[in-house]
Design brief:
Layout: H1 2-7, E1 13-16, E2 30-33, H2 39-48, E3 53-56, H3 63-68, H4 70-90, E4 95-101, H5 124-143, E5 146-152, E6 154-156, H6 174-182, E7 189-192, E8 204-205, E9 207-209, H7 210-225, E10 231-235, E11 241-242, H8 243-254, E12 260-263, E13 272-273, H9 278-284, H10 293-308
Parallel strand pairs: 1-2, 3-4, 4-5, 5-10, 6-9, 7-12, 8-13
Antiparallel strand pairs: 8-11
Helix pairs in contact: 2-4, 4-5, 6-8, 6-10, 8-10
């Protein structure tokens, strides 16, 4: 996102406590190490810089961990965001772009999922995100805060330059885990559940490239600054791929056999999650450039080979 902002001519300030992030991967702009719940630091930043808009990417995002440590998730994802919004209000910053999630929907009642689908999250991660979305709507009514909430489906891929990509510890995302088998960092890939009501028995998910996510944030920023109203949008490719299909594409891209270990279902994994992103395409003109799964995997493969060296 920082790369996209700088390329578009914006100035960027990055606030990160580096509990999950990596300072060496920031391509430019100003970096400030700290926490978004630090009231004194926030006041200092908003006083020192003339800030027009805030983009929030600072959530904890592991579903399983959120079930085990719900208070950590509500503290970081909700309570600290309250402090950020409060500071924005004190300093009259009126534009906010929020990384939300498909986890706000819970078990899908129909696919593809539209923004009108009921929000009934099944874990504290999704619950913390929908709480922020509702808080943003209230802040719009009360303070005139204009926001766009972007509900990601499965973020994937790496920057096409190969300069940055996914680096998580522990890693939980399917595509990096598969590619770590091809680099020799893992022996096999586990498939959790092979008896789902899908074409090959494995879960189906909608993958969206990180650079396309960044483009959507830029479009949201431009829309708000042009006077558009607050909005909520899904970000996905309107198409799903099963776990076995992703593995086959990775085998093709890497030339590696990628052994599989079949395992039992995980609790809470819906069979199919596919987004309808028609609304953002229609209203903001979002045009993903990396819709093809093979292209997404190729960009990730360039990055993970470099990471494995």
């Amino acid at each position: 996102m920082v790369k996209g902002l700088l390329d578009a001519g914006y100035k960027a300030i990055v606030l990160d406590d580096l509990s999950k992030g990596h300072q060496g991967l920031i391509p430019g702009g100003e970096f400030i190490q700290g926490n978004l719940g630090d009231v004194q630091l926030l006041d200092k930043i908003f006083t020192q810089y003339r800030i027009d808009a805030v983009m929030h990417f600072a959530a904890y995002s592991l579903v399983g961990e959120s079930v085990e440590k719900p208070l950590d998730y509500y503290r970081n994802n909700l309570a600290r965001t309250i402090e950020l919004l409060d500071a924005m209000n004190r300093h009259s910053v009126k534009y906010f772009i929020f990384s939300s999630t498909a986890a706000v929907y819970g078990e899908p009642m129909q696919v593809p999922i539209t923004e009108e689908h009921p929000s009934n999250p099944t874990n504290p991660y999704g619950a913390s995100k929908i709480a922020v979305e509702r808080m943003l709507q209230d802040c719009d009514m009360a303070h005139g805060l204009k926001f766009v909430a972007l509900r990601y489906f499965n973020a994937a891929g790496a920057d096409a330059s190969g300069e940055f990509g996914e680096r998580h510890e522990p890693e939980s995302h399917l595509i990096p885990l598969i590619l770590k088998v091809a680099t020799g960092e893992r022996q096999n890939i586990k498939i959790f559940g092979t008896d789902y009501p899908t074409q090959d028995g494995t879960c189906v998910r909608d993958y969206v490239h990180v650079s396309d996510l960044a483009q959507a944030h830029l479009l949201a920023l431009e829309a708000l600054m042009a006077g558009k109203n607050s909005a909520i949008y899904n970000l996905g490719n309107n198409k799903g791929y099963s776990v076995r299909e992703v593995i086959e594409v990775a085998r093709k891209v890497t030339g590696h056999p990628i052994p599989v270990e079949e395992s039992a279902r995980r609790a809470g994994d819906p069979a199919v999650l596919i987004a309808s992103s028609d609304k953002i395409r229609r209203e903001l003109g979002w045009q993903p450039r990396y819709e093809d799964l093979e292209t997404i995997v190729k960009t990730a493969w360039v990055w993970h080979q470099k990471e494995a060296l």
